[in-house]
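Lecture notes, unit on protein representations.

Consider one protein chain, 236 amino acids long.
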Amino acid sequence: MKQTNKLFIVTCLIIIPSFTFLNAQDSVKISAIENDTIYQPVFISPDTSVVQSVESIPVKRSFAKKFWRGCGLSAGLNTSLGLFLLLLPESITKWERSDKFKLSVIKEQYKLTFTQPPVIDKDLWYVNYVGHPYQGAYYFNTMRSQGVDFWTSSLFSLGQSTLWEYVLEGSMEQPSIQDLIITPVLGSIVGELAHRVTLDMRKNGFEWYEKVVVCIINPAYVFNNGFRVQKKTYKY
């Protein structure tokens, strides 16, 4: 009889948490979770009688929806960044022609943009080596924070960086060699670091100061996920 009771208790300890976990996934198929989920490990607290499991964020969007959502978030940044650059002095933007907003000048510049090779720009160091990596990291994390893998997110950042250089900034100046390389490459590295730091802070729930940090280093995560944390505690 005692052996039967022990078997029943062990069975409950295995089955009940399993059903709790599946219920937390909002009825998403297991295959979808395996392919499109940001994973977090199960860890044991100092009190060995309590096991805390930080659930994964189920990403139920199709890849197409993730892609277009990433494009929308990137377009929002590009619009804001474009307006911000227009307000900056010409000593920073290097857009020195007073007639740069004339349609004929824009057409002329576009012709040069798509017929001449990119050049090494003379922008300020913090524009090239701080601003552009941050921009690339944002592009990267618009996809990465939706559960997309590193390399696909990097390719997305490359595409958005090229779009910025040739289509948006290309109306004002010749595409920059540094920006075409630094924005997606260094941006993906910085973006992945920000992504991992964000997930690490998410394990125990975001403190108020961690929310501030995430808003600064990984705003795309906030747009895609907010600060939701799925957390279960099981006591034996």
